[in-house]
Crp/Fnr family transcriptional regulator
Amino acid sequence: MIRIMPHPANPPRRAATPLPWPPALEAMAERRRLAPGTALFRAGDPARHVFGLAQGQVALRRVGVAGEDIVIHLAQAGECFAEASLHGGHYHCTAEAVGTADVAAVPAEALRARLRDDPDFALQWSALLAAQLRRTRARVERLCLRSAADRVLHLLQTEGHGRDGAYTPRSTLRALAAELGLTPEALYRTLAALQRAGRLRRDGPVLRLR
Amino acid sequence: MIRIMPHPANPPRRAATPLPWPPALEAMAERRRLAPGTALFRAGDPARHVFGLAQGQVALRRVGVAGEDIVIHLAQAGECFAEASLHGGHYHCTAEAVGTADVAAVPAEALRARLRDDPDFALQWSALLAAQLRRTRARVERLCLRSAADRVLHLLQTEGHGRDGAYTPRSTLRALAAELGLTPEALYRTLAALQRAGRLRRDGPVLRLR
Protein backbone atom coordinates (compact mmCIF):
# COMPACT_ATOMS: atom_id res chain seq x y z
CA MET A 1 0.00 0.00 0.00
CA ILE A 2 1.34 3.41 -0.93
CA ARG A 3 0.68 6.13 1.61
CA ILE A 4 1.78 9.50 0.37
CA MET A 5 1.06 12.51 2.50
CA PRO A 6 0.30 15.49 0.26
CA HIS A 7 2.43 18.53 0.81
CA PRO A 8 0.62 21.59 2.21
CA ALA A 9 -0.46 24.16 -0.37
CA ASN A 10 2.26 26.65 0.53
CA PRO A 11 5.02 24.36 1.69
CA PRO A 12 7.43 26.30 3.89
CA ARG A 13 10.16 23.68 3.28
CA ARG A 14 9.99 23.93 -0.49
CA ALA A 15 12.34 26.89 -0.66
CA ALA A 16 14.53 25.33 2.02
CA THR A 17 15.22 22.13 0.10
CA PRO A 18 16.07 23.07 -3.47
CA LEU A 19 17.19 20.38 -5.88
CA PRO A 20 20.10 21.10 -8.24
CA TRP A 21 17.59 20.98 -11.08
CA PRO A 22 16.96 23.16 -14.12
CA PRO A 23 13.85 25.30 -13.52
CA ALA A 24 11.98 23.50 -16.32
CA LEU A 25 12.37 20.19 -14.49
CA GLU A 26 11.38 21.66 -11.13
CA ALA A 27 8.27 23.14 -12.77
CA MET A 28 7.11 19.67 -13.84
CA ALA A 29 7.61 18.16 -10.38
CA GLU A 30 5.03 17.57 -7.70
CA ARG A 31 6.47 17.68 -4.18
CA ARG A 32 5.56 14.90 -1.74
CA ARG A 33 6.53 14.33 1.86
CA LEU A 34 7.00 10.71 2.86
CA ALA A 35 6.69 9.44 6.42
CA PRO A 36 9.50 7.07 7.54
CA GLY A 37 9.08 3.63 5.99
CA THR A 38 6.54 4.74 3.38
CA ALA A 39 6.86 2.96 0.05
CA LEU A 40 7.01 5.45 -2.81
CA PHE A 41 6.62 2.61 -5.32
CA ARG A 42 6.91 -1.17 -5.29
CA ALA A 43 8.64 -3.64 -7.62
CA GLY A 44 6.19 -4.50 -10.38
CA ASP A 45 4.26 -1.20 -10.27
CA PRO A 46 4.03 0.57 -13.65
CA ALA A 47 6.94 3.05 -13.83
CA ARG A 48 5.19 6.42 -14.05
CA HIS A 49 7.56 8.88 -12.36
CA VAL A 50 11.18 9.94 -12.23
CA PHE A 51 12.09 11.25 -8.78
CA GLY A 52 14.36 13.80 -7.21
CA LEU A 53 15.15 13.62 -3.52
CA ALA A 54 15.10 17.04 -1.86
CA GLN A 55 15.60 15.85 1.70
CA GLY A 56 16.14 12.59 3.56
CA GLN A 57 17.11 9.20 2.18
CA VAL A 58 15.22 6.72 0.00
CA ALA A 59 16.28 3.06 -0.15
CA LEU A 60 15.79 1.17 -3.42
CA ARG A 61 15.62 -2.50 -2.51
CA ARG A 62 14.63 -5.84 -3.92
CA VAL A 63 13.96 -9.24 -2.38
CA GLY A 64 16.74 -11.70 -3.28
CA VAL A 65 16.36 -15.28 -4.51
CA ALA A 66 16.66 -16.63 -0.96
CA GLY A 67 14.26 -13.99 0.40
CA GLU A 68 17.04 -11.67 1.55
CA ASP A 69 16.91 -7.88 1.40
CA ILE A 70 19.09 -6.50 -1.43
CA VAL A 71 19.74 -2.73 -1.30
CA ILE A 72 20.32 -1.56 -4.86
CA HIS A 73 20.77 2.10 -4.08
CA LEU A 74 20.44 4.43 -1.12
CA ALA A 75 19.44 7.73 -2.73
CA GLN A 76 20.74 10.87 -1.00
CA ALA A 77 19.36 14.42 -0.92
CA GLY A 78 20.13 16.25 -4.16
CA GLU A 79 20.03 13.12 -6.32
CA CYS A 80 17.56 11.75 -8.85
CA PHE A 81 16.41 8.16 -8.87
CA ALA A 82 14.28 5.91 -11.09
CA GLU A 83 15.49 7.77 -14.19
CA ALA A 84 14.71 4.67 -16.26
CA SER A 85 10.96 5.32 -15.71
CA LEU A 86 11.36 7.77 -18.57
CA HIS A 87 11.37 4.73 -20.81
CA GLY A 88 8.26 3.10 -19.36
CA GLY A 89 7.94 -0.47 -18.17
CA HIS A 90 7.74 -1.39 -14.49
CA TYR A 91 9.80 -0.58 -11.45
CA HIS A 92 12.35 -3.32 -10.74
CA CYS A 93 12.67 -2.48 -7.08
CA THR A 94 10.78 -0.98 -4.16
CA ALA A 95 11.56 2.58 -2.99
CA GLU A 96 11.09 3.32 0.68
CA ALA A 97 11.72 6.47 2.72
CA VAL A 98 14.37 5.73 5.37
CA GLY A 99 13.48 8.66 7.62
CA THR A 100 11.13 11.46 6.65
CA ALA A 101 11.84 12.29 3.00
CA ASP A 102 10.84 15.10 0.65
CA VAL A 103 10.66 13.94 -2.94
CA ALA A 104 9.89 15.67 -6.21
CA ALA A 105 7.89 13.39 -8.53
CA VAL A 106 8.13 14.16 -12.25
CA PRO A 107 5.54 12.40 -14.43
CA ALA A 108 7.51 10.30 -16.93
CA GLU A 109 5.13 11.17 -19.74
CA ALA A 110 5.57 14.93 -19.25
CA LEU A 111 9.33 14.50 -19.03
CA ARG A 112 9.39 12.44 -22.22
CA ALA A 113 7.30 15.03 -24.06
CA ARG A 114 9.55 17.85 -22.88
CA LEU A 115 12.69 15.96 -23.95
CA ARG A 116 11.13 15.50 -27.39
CA ASP A 117 10.00 19.10 -27.79
CA ASP A 118 12.77 21.11 -26.17
CA PRO A 119 16.35 20.39 -27.34
CA ASP A 120 17.81 22.76 -24.73
CA PHE A 121 16.04 20.85 -22.02
CA ALA A 122 17.32 17.54 -23.47
CA LEU A 123 20.87 18.88 -23.06
CA GLN A 124 20.16 19.99 -19.48
CA TRP A 125 18.77 16.57 -18.63
CA SER A 126 21.82 14.89 -20.14
CA ALA A 127 24.08 17.22 -18.10
CA LEU A 128 22.22 16.27 -14.93
CA LEU A 129 22.68 12.53 -15.56
CA ALA A 130 26.34 13.00 -16.55
CA ALA A 131 27.06 14.93 -13.32
CA GLN A 132 25.47 12.17 -11.22
CA LEU A 133 27.47 9.54 -13.11
CA ARG A 134 30.70 11.42 -12.43
CA ARG A 135 30.02 11.66 -8.71
CA THR A 136 28.86 8.04 -8.41
CA ARG A 137 31.93 6.75 -10.27
CA ALA A 138 34.25 8.78 -8.04
CA ARG A 139 32.49 7.20 -5.08
CA VAL A 140 33.17 3.72 -6.48
CA GLU A 141 36.90 4.48 -6.74
CA ARG A 142 36.90 5.93 -3.22
CA LEU A 143 35.27 2.80 -1.79
CA CYS A 144 37.94 0.67 -3.50
CA LEU A 145 40.69 2.45 -1.52
CA ARG A 146 41.87 0.33 1.41
CA SER A 147 42.70 3.02 3.95
CA ALA A 148 40.14 5.25 5.64
CA ALA A 149 42.54 8.23 5.38
CA ASP A 150 42.85 7.73 1.61
CA ARG A 151 39.04 7.71 1.29
CA VAL A 152 38.70 10.99 3.20
CA LEU A 153 41.47 12.67 1.17
CA HIS A 154 39.95 11.33 -2.10
CA LEU A 155 36.59 12.83 -1.11
CA LEU A 156 38.09 16.29 -0.58
CA GLN A 157 40.17 16.04 -3.78
CA THR A 158 37.22 15.02 -5.95
CA GLU A 159 34.22 16.75 -4.31
CA GLY A 160 35.82 19.67 -2.46
CA HIS A 161 36.06 23.21 -3.80
CA GLY A 162 39.10 25.38 -4.46
CA ARG A 163 42.77 24.69 -3.92
CA ASP A 164 42.23 23.40 -0.38
CA GLY A 165 39.39 21.02 -1.34
CA ALA A 166 36.90 22.68 1.03
CA TYR A 167 34.17 20.11 1.64
CA THR A 168 31.01 20.59 3.69
CA PRO A 169 29.32 17.29 4.64
CA ARG A 170 25.70 17.24 3.46
CA SER A 171 24.42 16.20 6.87
CA THR A 172 26.02 14.50 9.87
CA LEU A 173 29.49 12.93 10.18
CA ARG A 174 27.64 9.66 10.81
CA ALA A 175 26.04 9.94 7.35
CA LEU A 176 29.42 10.85 5.87
CA ALA A 177 30.93 7.73 7.44
CA ALA A 178 28.25 5.57 5.79
CA GLU A 179 28.91 7.28 2.45
CA LEU A 180 32.62 6.43 2.82
CA GLY A 181 31.90 2.82 3.79
CA LEU A 182 33.32 3.41 7.30
CA THR A 183 31.96 3.09 10.82
CA PRO A 184 31.42 6.46 12.52
CA GLU A 185 34.22 5.60 14.99
CA ALA A 186 36.67 4.87 12.16
CA LEU A 187 35.82 8.22 10.55
CA TYR A 188 36.28 10.19 13.80
CA ARG A 189 39.64 8.48 14.41
CA THR A 190 40.74 9.13 10.82
CA LEU A 191 39.80 12.82 10.89
CA ALA A 192 41.69 13.26 14.18
CA ALA A 193 44.76 11.44 12.81
CA LEU A 194 44.77 13.51 9.60
CA GLN A 195 44.54 16.72 11.67
CA ARG A 196 47.44 15.62 13.90
CA ALA A 197 49.48 14.77 10.78
CA GLY A 198 48.82 18.30 9.44
CA ARG A 199 47.01 17.02 6.34
CA LEU A 200 43.50 18.22 7.23
CA ARG A 201 42.00 21.29 8.83
CA ARG A 202 38.49 21.53 10.34
CA ASP A 203 36.84 24.87 10.00
CA GLY A 204 33.46 24.49 11.74
CA PRO A 205 31.67 21.86 9.62
CA VAL A 206 34.03 22.40 6.66
CA LEU A 207 36.88 19.97 6.02
CA ARG A 208 39.93 21.37 4.20
CA LEU A 209 43.18 19.93 2.88
CA ARG A 210 46.42 21.52 4.03
CA MET B 1 51.72 14.20 -25.76
CA ILE B 2 48.82 12.29 -27.24
CA ARG B 3 49.79 9.30 -29.35
CA ILE B 4 46.79 7.73 -30.95
CA MET B 5 47.37 4.88 -33.34
CA PRO B 6 44.78 5.06 -36.09
CA HIS B 7 42.69 1.99 -36.52
CA PRO B 8 43.22 0.09 -39.78
CA ALA B 9 40.71 0.85 -42.52
CA ASN B 10 38.85 -2.44 -42.13
CA PRO B 11 39.38 -3.19 -38.49
CA PRO B 12 38.91 -6.91 -37.88
CA ARG B 13 38.26 -6.28 -34.15
CA ARG B 14 35.44 -3.84 -34.76
CA ALA B 15 32.81 -6.54 -35.02
CA ALA B 16 34.41 -8.46 -32.16
CA THR B 17 34.07 -5.62 -29.63
CA PRO B 18 30.59 -4.15 -30.00
CA LEU B 19 29.46 -1.46 -27.58
CA PRO B 20 25.93 -1.62 -26.15
CA TRP B 21 25.17 1.51 -28.17
CA PRO B 22 22.28 2.56 -30.37
CA PRO B 23 23.34 2.31 -34.05
CA ALA B 24 23.04 6.10 -34.46
CA LEU B 25 25.69 6.62 -31.79
CA GLU B 26 27.99 3.95 -33.20
CA ALA B 27 27.68 5.59 -36.63
CA MET B 28 29.07 8.87 -35.23
CA ALA B 29 32.03 7.20 -33.54
CA GLU B 30 35.59 6.90 -34.77
CA ARG B 31 37.37 3.80 -33.48
CA ARG B 32 40.87 4.20 -32.05
CA ARG B 33 43.28 1.68 -30.61
CA LEU B 34 45.42 2.91 -27.74
CA ALA B 35 48.76 1.39 -26.77
CA PRO B 36 49.23 0.77 -23.02
CA GLY B 37 49.86 4.00 -21.14
CA THR B 38 48.75 6.25 -24.00
CA ALA B 39 46.93 9.40 -22.89
CA LEU B 40 43.65 9.79 -24.73
CA PHE B 41 43.28 13.32 -23.33
CA ARG B 42 44.85 15.38 -20.57
CA ALA B 43 43.41 17.62 -17.85
CA GLY B 44 43.01 21.10 -19.32
CA ASP B 45 42.58 19.96 -22.95
CA PRO B 46 39.42 21.29 -24.62
CA ALA B 47 36.69 18.65 -24.17
CA ARG B 48 35.89 17.62 -27.75
CA HIS B 49 34.81 13.98 -27.51
CA VAL B 50 32.59 11.64 -25.55
CA PHE B 51 34.06 8.13 -25.45
CA GLY B 52 32.90 4.57 -25.36
CA LEU B 53 35.28 1.83 -24.31
CA ALA B 54 34.97 -1.28 -26.48
CA GLN B 55 37.87 -3.20 -24.99
CA GLY B 56 40.46 -2.80 -22.23
CA GLN B 57 40.48 -0.31 -19.37
CA VAL B 58 40.97 3.46 -19.29
CA ALA B 59 41.96 5.22 -16.05
CA LEU B 60 40.68 8.74 -15.46
CA ARG B 61 43.06 10.37 -13.02
CA ARG B 62 44.06 13.70 -11.62
CA VAL B 63 47.09 14.97 -9.70
CA GLY B 64 46.13 15.78 -6.09
CA VAL B 65 47.06 18.88 -4.08
CA ALA B 66 50.11 17.13 -2.62
CA GLY B 67 51.13 15.75 -6.03
CA GLU B 68 49.51 12.37 -5.45
CA ASP B 69 47.74 10.30 -8.10
CA ILE B 70 43.93 10.40 -7.69
CA VAL B 71 41.99 7.83 -9.73
CA ILE B 72 38.55 9.29 -10.43
CA HIS B 73 37.25 6.40 -12.49
CA LEU B 74 38.51 3.21 -14.03
CA ALA B 75 36.35 2.80 -17.13
CA GLN B 76 35.54 -0.78 -18.13
CA ALA B 77 34.68 -2.30 -21.51
CA GLY B 78 31.08 -1.53 -22.48
CA GLU B 79 30.97 1.81 -20.65
CA CYS B 80 31.00 5.43 -21.77
CA PHE B 81 33.19 8.05 -20.21
CA ALA B 82 33.68 11.84 -20.46
CA GLU B 83 29.94 12.29 -21.11
CA ALA B 84 30.23 15.86 -19.78
CA SER B 85 32.22 16.78 -22.93
CA LEU B 86 28.83 17.10 -24.55
CA HIS B 87 28.53 20.40 -22.71
CA GLY B 88 31.93 21.76 -23.75
CA GLY B 89 34.59 23.20 -21.45
CA HIS B 90 37.80 21.35 -20.66
CA TYR B 91 38.62 17.88 -19.41
CA HIS B 92 39.08 17.88 -15.63
CA CYS B 93 41.22 14.76 -15.63
CA THR B 94 43.64 12.76 -17.75
CA ALA B 95 42.49 9.55 -19.46
CA GLU B 96 45.09 6.85 -19.96
CA ALA B 97 44.85 3.35 -21.43
CA VAL B 98 45.77 0.80 -18.74
CA GLY B 99 46.55 -2.04 -21.16
CA THR B 100 45.75 -1.95 -24.87
CA ALA B 101 42.36 -0.30 -25.24
CA ASP B 102 39.88 0.10 -28.09
CA VAL B 103 37.85 3.27 -27.76
CA ALA B 104 35.05 4.81 -29.81
CA ALA B 105 35.40 8.60 -29.95
CA VAL B 106 32.20 10.56 -30.63
CA PRO B 107 32.72 14.22 -31.53
CA ALA B 108 30.84 16.24 -28.92
CA GLU B 109 29.60 18.72 -31.52
CA ALA B 110 28.04 16.00 -33.69
CA LEU B 111 26.48 14.39 -30.62
CA ARG B 112 25.04 17.72 -29.45
CA ALA B 113 23.59 18.40 -32.91
CA ARG B 114 22.03 14.95 -33.05
CA LEU B 115 20.50 15.34 -29.57
CA ARG B 116 18.98 18.63 -30.71
CA ASP B 117 17.63 17.32 -34.01
CA ASP B 118 16.51 13.81 -33.18
CA PRO B 119 14.17 13.38 -30.18
CA ASP B 120 14.26 9.58 -30.48
CA PHE B 121 18.02 9.67 -30.23
CA ALA B 122 17.79 11.99 -27.20
CA LEU B 123 15.69 9.34 -25.46
CA GLN B 124 18.16 6.59 -26.41
CA TRP B 125 21.04 8.66 -25.04
CA SER B 126 19.14 9.26 -21.83
CA ALA B 127 18.44 5.52 -21.52
CA LEU B 128 22.15 4.77 -21.95
CA LEU B 129 23.13 7.18 -19.16
CA ALA B 130 20.33 5.92 -16.89
CA ALA B 131 21.47 2.30 -17.36
CA GLN B 132 25.07 3.21 -16.47
CA LEU B 133 23.85 5.11 -13.41
CA ARG B 134 21.87 2.11 -12.24
CA ARG B 135 24.85 -0.23 -12.56
CA THR B 136 27.28 2.20 -10.94
CA ARG B 137 24.95 2.82 -7.99
CA ALA B 138 24.47 -0.91 -7.45
CA ARG B 139 28.27 -1.19 -7.41
CA VAL B 140 28.45 1.48 -4.69
CA GLU B 141 26.03 -0.47 -2.49
CA ARG B 142 27.96 -3.68 -3.15
CA LEU B 143 31.26 -2.07 -2.10
CA CYS B 144 29.62 -0.88 1.12
CA LEU B 145 28.87 -4.51 2.13
CA ARG B 146 31.39 -5.77 4.70
CA SER B 147 31.62 -9.43 3.70
CA ALA B 148 33.15 -10.72 0.47
CA ALA B 149 30.40 -13.37 0.20
CA ASP B 150 27.69 -10.69 0.42
CA ARG B 151 29.39 -8.72 -2.37
CA VAL B 152 29.47 -11.77 -4.67
CA LEU B 153 25.83 -12.63 -3.95
CA HIS B 154 24.80 -8.98 -4.45
CA LEU B 155 26.55 -8.98 -7.84
CA LEU B 156 24.61 -12.04 -9.02
CA GLN B 157 21.33 -10.71 -7.62
CA THR B 158 21.68 -7.30 -9.31
CA GLU B 159 23.64 -8.05 -12.51
CA GLY B 160 22.86 -11.72 -13.14
CA HIS B 161 20.14 -12.99 -15.48
CA GLY B 162 17.17 -15.21 -14.79
CA ARG B 163 15.99 -16.83 -11.57
CA ASP B 164 19.44 -18.21 -10.76
CA GLY B 165 21.25 -14.89 -11.33
CA ALA B 166 23.52 -16.30 -14.06
CA TYR B 167 26.50 -13.98 -14.28
CA THR B 168 29.39 -14.22 -16.72
CA PRO B 169 32.43 -12.16 -15.67
CA ARG B 170 33.42 -9.68 -18.39
CA SER B 171 37.03 -10.80 -18.32
CA THR B 172 39.20 -12.55 -15.72
CA LEU B 173 38.37 -13.41 -12.10
CA ARG B 174 41.26 -11.11 -11.20
CA ALA B 175 39.42 -8.21 -12.87
CA LEU B 176 36.20 -9.27 -11.14
CA ALA B 177 38.01 -9.21 -7.78
CA ALA B 178 39.12 -5.61 -8.44
CA GLU B 179 35.56 -4.67 -9.41
CA LEU B 180 34.35 -6.09 -6.09
CA GLY B 181 37.07 -4.31 -4.09
CA LEU B 182 38.64 -7.67 -3.14
CA THR B 183 42.06 -9.23 -3.60
CA PRO B 184 42.06 -12.10 -6.12
CA GLU B 185 42.84 -14.53 -3.26
CA ALA B 186 39.86 -13.31 -1.24
CA LEU B 187 37.59 -13.79 -4.26
CA TYR B 188 38.86 -17.35 -4.95
CA ARG B 189 38.39 -18.27 -1.29
CA THR B 190 34.90 -16.74 -1.23
CA LEU B 191 33.75 -18.52 -4.40
CA ALA B 192 35.00 -21.85 -3.02
CA ALA B 193 33.28 -21.26 0.34
CA LEU B 194 29.98 -20.32 -1.34
CA GLN B 195 30.15 -23.47 -3.49
CA ARG B 196 30.83 -25.63 -0.42
CA ALA B 197 27.90 -23.96 1.36
CA GLY B 198 25.64 -24.83 -1.60
CA ARG B 199 24.85 -21.17 -2.36
CA LEU B 200 26.75 -20.88 -5.67
CA ARG B 201 27.30 -23.08 -8.70
CA ARG B 202 30.08 -22.63 -11.27
CA ASP B 203 29.16 -23.61 -14.77
CA GLY B 204 32.30 -23.01 -16.84
CA PRO B 205 32.84 -19.25 -16.58
CA VAL B 206 29.24 -18.63 -15.48
CA LEU B 207 28.41 -18.08 -11.80
CA ARG B 208 24.90 -19.07 -10.67
CA LEU B 209 22.93 -18.81 -7.45
CA ARG B 210 21.42 -21.97 -6.03
